[in-house]
Amino acid sequence: MKSWERAWQQALRWVFFSVSHRLDQISSSFSPFTVRQLSEITAKILSSADAIDATVWSRLAAASGPYNPFVQQRFFNALERSSSACEKTGWKPFHVSIEKEGEVIGIVPMYAKGHSQGEYVFDYAWADAWHRAGGEYYPKLQVSVPFTPATGPRILCNRDNKEDLSAIFSTLKQICQKTGVSSLHITFMEKNLWDIANQNEFVCRMDQQFHWQNAAYSSFDDFLGDLASKKRKNLRRERKEALANDIEIEHITGASLSEKHWDAFFAFYLDTGQRKWGTPYLTRSFFTEIQNTMAEETLLIMAKRNGRYIAGALNFIGENTLFGRNWGCIEDHRFLHFEICYYQAIDFAIENGLKTVEAGAQGSHKVARGYLPCATYSAHWIENDSFRDAISKFVDEEKTYVERDINYIEQHSPFNSNVELRDLREIRVKET
After folding, report:
1. pLDDT: which is higher, 24 or 164
2. In the list 230, 245, 260, 382, which could disulfide-bond 388, CB 3.0-4.6 Å?
3. Residue 23 banded pLDDT, cuts 50, 70, 90
4. Alpha-carbon torsion (403, 409, 415, 417), positive or negative
5. Considering only CA atoms, which of 333, 301, 328, 335 is closest in space to residue 317?
6. Fold match flag (3-201 vs 211-372+416-426)
7. Is the pLDDT of residue 428 over 50?
């Protein structure tokens, strides 16, 4: 076992020891399938995603907006069945099924957490402040898709019924109160839901990612035509150099996916974690699970040299968006990361008429590759009034800086002067 793996396991053991008794208290407070009366509706807490009726889940996911692979029940099942998201990794399933007059009106995929790993909306400073004040920040409740910094529905329901939505937010606050946790966090939520959370007294936080928008481009060269001359030349040079060493690129999806592809990609995935001193959250069996249940929504972009796969990126395909998730390699080649993760993703989006490419969290270097800043949203219920007020002041100030940064980047975008960024955001997608 490598030293970083030993260090991480030791850290996890300490976390599990310190919070396991609290997680047990949560479980006893809301046993699976136990219904509690909360306000005007009832809530049922479930210990696994597959405990919820699949037909109901599909109905509410469809009512929540355009098809998003990460809010499908089979994606959560893959995470949980593969032991990627489970109590041992600090992601104890705590999903909420909300009923009104005997009908399920909402599903909230949620986890009880003993740490803040794998979330991409960072609250370590909050946890530290609370601990220094003598409180216990963990466990907390997390409404999110584990290890997935991609915006999408976080409350699966009929969005047109604002009364039910407000009741669901009230229910979440009451669950927080009844379980005795410090806080409840909803991350990478959509703007309209964020606004409703604000109306329901959640602390609302803003950050940014970098997304590529498809302005009805017919080809990559068509997209390049919108860039400033220097940027256009740089991208062409990077694409050429990335493939200079007899490297071939493959797009693999659907029935073409096989275990040999996942074996190769998993090695890349582990290599990335080791080099960044990060955590390989996903187990090998997760990739088999998604091949068995989500192959048509999965895209591997793989690089091959001398008959051997040397690098790859995992993507998921939504109704309007290509979601880039993980990348790794076992050989270093100049600009290959940009080619596989950014440029090949753009090629696929243009070819398939997708509106957006979301290339994951962070990375201001994406701007030079034609990706623009986009706000991301999260909402937080902090149980302690004084602590909630302090965090609210912090996120208000933070929001000002995020907005300034987005505005500055847009003023220095890679696009030429006759391209109106507002028009790009209209996403004029070609007919397919």
Report:
1. 164
2. 382
3. low
4. positive
5. 301
6. yes
7. no
Residues 6+ apart with CB under 8 A from 146: 79, 84, 85, 91, 111, 118, 281
- Give the CATH architecture of domain 211-372+416-426: 3-Layer(aba) Sandwich (3.40)
Query: Which residue is it, tokens 């706000």?
Result: 375
Return d(Cα 66, Cα 83) in angstroms, integer.
28
The tokens of 399 are what?
Answer: 């929001």
Kindly indicate the confidence band of residue 429, based on its pLDDT and cuts at 50, 70 and 90.
very low
* Residues 324-343: tens digit of each pLDDT: 999 999 999 999 999 999 99
Residue with tokens 């669950």: 175
Through-space distance between the first and last CA atoms of the chain, rounded to whole angstroms = 50
Question: What is the domain partition of the chain in residue ranges?
Answer: 3-201, 211-372+416-426
Contact 38, 45 (CB under 8 A): no
pLDDT tens-digit map of 155-199 = 999 888 888 898 899 999 999 999 999 999 999 999 999 999 999
Spatial separation of the C-alpha atoms in residues 202 and 381, rounded to whole Å: 5
Q: Is the peptide bond before 373 cis (omega within 30 degrees of 0)?
A: no
Write the CATH number of the domain with boundaries 3-201: 3.40.630
Among residues 126, 160, 190, 161, which one has the least CA distance to residue 381? Answer: 126
Q: What is the phi/psi pair of residue 244, to 5°? A: -65, -30
